[in-house]
Amino acid sequence: MIYSWSNRLNLGGKARVPSPLLSELVWARDILNESGAQTPSGNEYVSLPTIRERDGALESISCLYMNLKGMLELKGKDAFLKPEFHLDGKEVSGQPLIWKRTHCWIPSFSADTDVFSFRCVYLTPVGERGFAIRLEAANHDSFPHALSVGLQGEWEKTLHTVNESIPLTQGRSVIRSHWNDMFVFQQVPGIPLLAFAPVIGDHSPFSEVDQGARWEQHDYSFRIWKCGLVQPGESICLDIFFGLGYEEVAASASAKEMLRQGFEALAERTAIWLADREKTAQDPRLSELLNTNLFFAFFYASGRTIDTEELCMMTSRSPRYYVSAAYWDRDSLLWAFPAILEADPRYARELLLTVYRRQSRNFGIHSRYIDGTVLEPGFELDELCAPVIALDRYIQKTSDTSLMHRPEITESLENILLRLAERKHASIPLYSTFLQPTDDKHNYPYLTYDNVLVWRTYTILGNLLSRKDLLLLADQVRGAIEEHCVFRCQNKSVYAWSTDLNGHWDIYDEPPGSLQLLPFYGYCGTESNTWRNTVSLIRDPAYAFSFAGHSISEIGCRHAPHPWILSVCNSLLSGYEDSALRHLEATKMDNGLACESVHEDTGECTSGEAFATCAGFLAYALLTLNPLHP
Predict the structure, then answer these.
(1) How many Cβ atoms are within 10 Å of 505's Cβ, its own excluded?
(2) 455-467, pLDDT tens digit by residue?
């Protein structure tokens, strides 16, 4: 899939669409069985991270679990759920599948011939602890045909995931349950952990030979189907609702609640919710790129835990991302949060409060579990500044200053100031870090980009707390940056990437914390000669990670030596939008979703598939080209 557009971004108002139910109104892509391609979906509670586009199979489902510090994933041997269709007793296979995403998020596929058509919709209703699948078959022939729609399911194992996946080897069971009149899968390793339960939604019989919905279950495999003799011009439909919960009753009740509401009502409510948050651009392909990444960030960089119902943030809920289900201040608050705030300020407020409540004890530490405890130690200065920048962004967007009176906020801000003071050089007002924005070890401890964030942090807190001493500190940091972080290179003044304040410095850049972003954070204007010289230097063909002259000439770094999608975002935010849009046009990324890096010539993903926080930054960067609220 290659995106193509010719118009500059021109954002309009909300794309509120009063349904025709599940109409494909903002989708500009048809996929014919892309080999290996996968598409995700999900809501606050459940993720469907790997839906295969070649056959429509759902490989796994997952949910966040606070008391286990991460994510639980239910998997099958080949697939957890796999749709199947039969025509006159024979399984239909080999038909090209055409995929669509309604409102850039609800995935469906169809297969059409002169004789029949099949369709499957994966629906993750907002606010529900589960998901639903609609299976349809229609007879286009002039003769009756026996049609069957259904799916096969198999639960092989449960994985606990925080960066790495570990199988849970104990407590897997399946029981017959009167709560859903079917069966329930449970993980009970001594005490209940998680349960998964289906409920069938049957439609009124369309003919006298309709057999209705049926199911069978053997151990951890099952099949649910509906068949009948379908007259010309008629169709058959089966809705299956799947609930998750702490144990049998919660899972079954979740599925039954969705059944009671009905697929149509759930789909319409979800479509309206998505439409209220969509953004529009002149070119429909750019609208698709923007909104698909926006919703992916919303539902995969944040979520609600199945056990405590708390909102939390993480790099990605997808197991395809190499550090999934863990929390970074930088990734969540500098990249994903701005996009989520644009989509839903109320939701963003709850996220921010949860971050300050759960994560504040370890603000600035490399990575943490979703409950706030340390996963990977190591101090990162940009991560210590991120909560303050996110708080300011929220207040600027909403004018809601009430957060400044909440104890979890005020106490956290005081602790941030104390930790900043611990990183200050003995005599120079510059601040050290241990790890760089890529989480790799630095060459020298004083990074220009990081200290610009310190300047920004002191400026924000000086204004929010009405403290002149902090504004004075901000001025001192700015003066120290200009005195100690500016050097001569090729007879021009440039910002060093890092320095030891003893004469050693380096030329370098990292897309996760780029010198290109200094104007974005308000430190200087794009007319600054020193900044322009710096950007020209790292974009020059002589710079090892510039990729100048290639199809995608964005910045890379040692951590991933190919152009980064975050660099595309940085370019969009720093006056290089024309080239950035061309680069987006030339890359598939991860099937249209942001990834870490892409090949400089082919645009194929080279690292970091399903990078949800990056997807948020991409959506936000596209939005800022022409703000909805100037």
Answers:
(1) 23
(2) 999 999 999 999 9
